[in-house]
Amino acid sequence: MTRQWLRDWQVQHAKDHNNIFNALNALNSALGNPAYEINNKRLSFDPSNLHTINDFMQESRFQHAEFYQWINQLGASLSTYGKTPLSIKPDLNLTGPLVTITDKSWELFLQQERVIHMMTLSVINQLYAAYDKQMDSQLSGNFVVGVNMIPGTGEFIYDTIPYVHYGIVPYKNTVHPAWWVDNVHQNGNIVEDLNFYNDQSPPVMNATDFVTATNQMNQPFLNVKTVALVVAWFGDNVDASKCQIYPSSVYANYDNWIMYGQYQHELFGGGYWPEYYSNGVPTGKIINGGVINDFWRCSSLTQNSTNIISITQTNGSYDYGGTPSDQSIVRAIRDFKAKGYRVVFYPMILMDCAGFPWRGRITYSPDNDAQATTTINNFLGPATTSMFTRDFQELTVNYSGNLSDWTYRRMILHYANLCVIAGGVDLFLL
Known about the structure:
Number of helices: 8
Oligomer: single chain
């Protein structure tokens, strides 16, 4: 190796260290930390002077150690990094100063420096990728100030209390889908877990899907202040003169798999819910070992009401979940309010007819004559405020009008009263 080549190399080596230092300091500054300091003055040597060469090597190793210490500090402050701490491997450093200047000793040193620099730059790139990922997450959380709570269907999807459904298989020897077989408890009885978040072991008290989801929402979306709770009824025709607006349940009308279904909600009086079933007999709502039955409720309807319009099915599966039960909605609103959120109530119509069109397609033609006025009035319906009675005990609203009044005004007035039971909302959408 020529002395000129070594002089050129040390210039490039000093630039490499300076680039590493600047990259780490820039990331450190972006994280709001005080600036790093380092001494680059000794990163030069006289190729003919053994003493200056050894000083150079010692200072280079010292700076590498500093770089790795900073890398580990930065990695620890980045939640998205998750790498093990770095250390300079002994075999990548000369164990002592050079005693002679030979091409072999220089080759070994240059090889070690090259490997260390490549490894250091690779880790720095990983740190920057982790920083970008963390900032993306934080920025998205900062910009999101409100969310829609969906799906809007599911009898107890929004409940803070775990529910199970108990029913009877119509024919014990019938070949059922595997999912149902897994949920047959005893003597042909079905015990179906409706909203319990069971990806935890052991089960956590009151860990419903809703509670788990809303608790997790706080982590990435720190600035969310408003939640719009979407609750759906169904429409069965885009022709306003024929369209009925109604709530429904997949457990209504003694459907093909479950007969005379009753719901129970659990407060875990000491164990997981199957322990509370004896010989296949439903025990109902578990409160410290005591038992009370519960029902899906909506506007004086339960799953046992015979006039409920069924949700359509495709290949044996329901196209929608059922309308959320009144008491679940009340508890969801109260839970949001207790956590400090502004609550928007968002009643929605899901079209359960051919093609599953957008609800905005409901229309009537011609739309500018007396018949159109009559049609829209019929679509809105005859419900009046005096027909609704708030039940603060069962957390539902009773309707004294025709229970087969499937109209829009009944839906809206029902939920206006239900929101009062929940303690009010900040905004009610129409």
